[in-house]
Design goal:
heterodimer; A: 408 residues; mainly alpha; globular; B: 112 residues; 4-stranded antiparallel beta sheet; two-stranded antiparallel ribbon; 2 helices
Amino acid sequence: MDSGDIAWVLVSAALVLFMTPGLAFFYGGMDRARNVLNMLMMNFWCLLIVPIVWALGGFSLAQVPFDNDFIGGFDSAFMRGFSITGEDGGGGLATMIFLGMFAVITPALISGAVADRMKFAAWAIFVPAWLLLVFVPVFKWVYGGWLGQRGSLDFAGGTAIHVNAGIAALAAVLVLGKRKGWPTEGHPPHSMPLVMIGTGILWFGWFGFNAGSALAANGQAVQAFANTFFAAAAAGLAWAAVERIRDGHFTNLGAASGIVAGLVAITPCAGFVAGMAPIYIGLVAGVVCCFAVQLKNKAGYDDALDVVGVHFVGGLVGSLLLGFFAEPDFFGIDVKSGLFHDGGLSLLGEQALANGVTIVWSFVVTTIIMLALKATMGVRVTEEVEAAGLDLAEHAETGYHSGAGLGV
Amino acid sequence: MKLITAVIKPFKLDEVQGALKGIGVNGMTITEVQGYGRQSGHTEVYRGTEYTVAFVPKVKVEILADEAQVDAIEEALAAAARTDKIGDGKIWVTDVSSVQRVRTGERGPDAI
């Protein structure tokens, strides 16, 4: 890597790190006041434990050696083999850190689904277990492994991150069960301003997530940056417009949810689509996800903050639309073209396969992890703790001391 | 001595405070409260799901007053808090058996 590339990758890595606190605020604001600190800590726990697991061997298993199709090894475990002198100039280490930020936020995405009722100790074990058994192999298959070699594309993690975490969220809540009182008792957001701050931080950080995934300061990074800008705006507009027409008002939560859905959907596409494509992808994602978040009410799974509706569905929509919009000629790279650029159905088929495999693996293994935790330490707090709030019971802290103490 | 308690719309607090100052009331205590009367609550919509918010934010104002002042205070308070729309609130007056100013130990009307 030259100095320009290294500079951009390091900046991008810091941007992606900032997304996890952003996600924590996005979720925390949507959660109830008595559980806001538990939600923040579920996310910050990922910032504490995942870097350690990544250094011990997570990165190595997810990537090294690069010619393995299914799982890496231990060649780079314990931070072995990184050099900052010579030709590499620290590029390998920069990449390892950058990918580590993705490893942090991926399990954090799941926290929104299990909100309000999961034991913190169970979450603390779940995160490293899930990282090693689900994130690491899927990441390997998609990036350099057999799914990637067949020709499927995933620029910054639509399949490996959003579909993967989204379907895991569904598996987790099916084992965990519904919150007491759901869906009859309402669980409205306790702080919309917190949600909006979180959304802003996520969007800001996502420029590193997507444009940084070029792993270079080049034209592909510029286009990925532009796509991240346009798709999020289009999706926020689309979601809020649907709510305006369907429910009567242009809402903050609709705009915020749409922005995130658009960012999720453009993630797999960011370095492979150009022109007006990000706007079309964003519009589709905004409308589809706006309806997808209501599936839980009909199907009866309690995905508290809509991880399935936004991340799973948004990631899948983006990943499949890439089968239509991929335009490698524009980027001067040699990968499959989409249906709209004379590539036929081949890419769409590979996208469907890669996501299908990810869905099955992630759902099954996440279910096994959750069942194992349930059988050993238990995954749910007591009814009393659930009613009184997890902040006090699990962390001996209270989010807000002012106010009438109504515990809303 | 009387305790005048009023529950009013929060955005009317400044006007109420000004009106009471204007007639010589030099102290009050306020509390942010939630409640409902005939107005009942309202609905909010998040991601397409409707939530009923039964308790509406209000401000409770408490004023200790000498009996002779009560009518004037009630009147000024009601005039300042009124919007003529549902949810304007209520004012009620209760007897107070004893008042003491903590700093000086004064008791009764002198403590007001």
